Amino acid sequence: MDDPHSSPDRELVDAVLADRPGAFERLVREYQGLCWHIIQRMVRHPEDARDLCQETFLRVHQCLHQYRYESALKSWIGRVAYTIALRHLQHKRIPLLESTGDDFDESLVETIGDGFDLETACADEETVRHLHAAIERLPPLQRTLLTLYYLEEMPIPEIARITGLAGGTIKSHLFRTRLRLRGALETRTGVAA
Amino acid sequence: MIRNMNDDIPSFDDPAREREWLAQENAMRRERLHLDPHSDDARAQRYRMLARALRQPPEEGLPPDFARQVAARAGSVPRTSYGTRFEFGLIIVLSLALLIGSVVVSVQYGSGWLRPMIAPSLSATPSLHLLLALAGCVGFTWLLGRWQQAAGRR
Description:
The structure holds two protein chains of two kinds.
Chain A: H1 8-17, H2 23-43, H3 46-63, H4 73-91, H5 118-123, H6 125-136, H7 140-151, H8 156-163, H9 167-189
Helix pairs in contact in A: 1-2, 2-3, 2-4, 2-7, 3-4, 4-8, 6-9
Chain B: H1 2-5, H2 15-32, H3 42-54, H4 66-75, H5 82-123, H6 128-153
Helix pairs in contact in B: 2-3
């Protein structure tokens, strides 16, 4: 992991705080992908997500002097984006999680299944569409956790710093969501053995 | 490596769940490394398909000039946090309330204790020790303020 005390983080933060030309634009360009992934996955409304991304970076610009290098700059900015998206969902009364509790097939645990070929399934557009639809139907929190874990390749402790959730809670969400999506895939491609 | 960084995360109490978790992790790692899927069982291949879908970025993205636009907008806003402004306002209001309260109390009840307090100091010169202590307090407060300002800027 980056050491926030010696990494380019400090150089970039110092440049922004000193109002050096182009420094803040460089910071935005560096982290806009992360913010977009977090906010877009939470909010799912492209126009709202764009506005919230802008709000995130304006907040970062305002509050950067409060950054104390206790975590990587990436995590700190991710936390700002997550908090802004969360507040937006609360304002719109969109639940972060489903209230139904465990919605996954426990019987899938440790079953191998059969009749599946990765390359064939990936080439089948209907199966791919089915899987993407299942991902889209996930509640905002689970979608975001999966995005940070797979797309941003962040380890669980770093996701914990962004979301404020405990590592064990994140692990549990990831586990159940993956099992649930695997169940969705099995109903499409064949029954577990 | 991601696996090492996740080592501090507690295991599931149920061993079957933990084994399933490890299968999920293994499939994610194999997909990330583009390893040949033919040796994977059906479960691992399904998790790998999931990983492939999740690693795709969203179709829609931010406009190409997003960074430039935001930087231009940020440049037009002075960098003073709302929190700092609120705290500063609160300090002013509370200081004024304290000052007004002190004046009112002194006028109302001061005749009994204010005159005896002032009388000896008018008749006698303050000692050098007291003046030094006062100067020390003022100097220390000033230095503390400077140090806090420097820490805030860092």
